[in-house]
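ENTRY TYPE: paired fold submission
RECORD: A
CONTENT: sequence, then structure tokens
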Amino acid sequence: MDLHSLALSILVLYIVVDPVGNIPLFMAVTSRIGEGARRRVLSLSVVVASLILAFFALVGVEFFAYFGVGLGDFMVASGLVLAAFSLLYLLRPYEAPVSEGVEVAVVPLAVPYLSGPASISYVLVLSNQYGKVFALVVIVAVAALTYLTLSASRYVMKALGVIGIRVVEKIMLVVSVAIGVSLVRKGVALWLSEGAV
């Protein structure tokens, strides 16, 4: 297993999942529950999101391959989805969440914030390009980093403040758009090299 590719993939998926940008949401939806319940919400949301990503890592490639979708197709589609959703979140106005409590562990924390279309698309690319074991290792590593990041949400919020969090979120979203464009470019290059275009 190529450690450089592994480290880069972990970094990219971490940026796509964007736990730092999700700190205000996590703080808001758990503001009226105790510390124990907050930990349960965090654990459940990370586990559910990881299981969703693992499911697509294990069976997503075969499912789409059944319909004749190849690696180049994956890369172009995933790049478009990643860029589109990153732009959507980059340009949207901030909206305060309306739900609170343990029930938010699945929606909206696990889905769509921690395991949305962009992260699912990137996991599909990893699984197709590097294999299922590689993709699962990346998912587990990012899940651990996400848990640690959101566990320290109070400290991060105090250190950066709401404006600082928003700045970090916007930077990560810009990087996500660039990653999406890169995937599209590589997918088109693969098409051309295979004579598919």
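RECORD: B
CONTENT: sequence, then structure tokens
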Amino acid sequence: MQNPFQFDFEQGMVVLIDKPLEWTSFAAVNKMKYTMLAYLRKQMELGNYTLAAGQKLRIKIGHAGTLDPLASGLLIVCLGKQTKNIDSFMGMTKEYTGSFYIGATTPSFDLETAVNETFSVSHITTELLHQTAQQFIGEQQQFPPVYSAIKKDGKRLYESARAGVEVELESRTVTIYEFELTNIALPIVEFRIVCGKGTYIRSIAQDFGKALGSGAYLNSLRRTKIGEYDVTDAATVEAFVDWVKLAE
């Protein structure tokens, strides 16, 4: 099999990564960054890459949309000059699959924090679940989770939340294009959601529970698509590292 790693020193490259559970997006990108720096040093030794006088060895790298540590799936990583396209990738629609736990809530809206309240689910029917999901289709105002990386007054919201400091949240306009319930086995409800930029699936979980007259939190999450880019075409971070080493 031909090594798929072909780094263009002039144009850079875009890499599709399947981020594993429990990795931060930063950790995935950082691993790739240091792998690429080692590759560039090797290319310098071979005479394939040179630096201008006074220039330091560095590589531009960034991703187009953070995934929480408790989420897996597609991460678009841009290297070199392709980093200028990050904003356009971030503006693309996203597809997610995952599951909600119905009948309880957590402060983080997911499994990061322990359950803080439980609710009855005796009134919840399959029909009610599907009807409620349809109410979320379209443009709406959404409040981000307090455990999120959004900055408020110079601090990340999760920093304030972990310090026990209350912060007044501001709603944001988001768009949900598709909201499909793919399997129902209460208390677990599996879903597929297609949404626009800036949408928090954890907030959908919280709001979905309220709309049901109960509670809910995000039990699992996987990003499967960004625009036309599909996670089935993505590589693991380990595979990327191996490709780069083989290319040296």
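NOTES ON RECORD B: The domain at 94-226 is CATH 3.30.2350.10 (Pseudouridine synthase). The radius of gyration is 21 Å.
STATUS: closed
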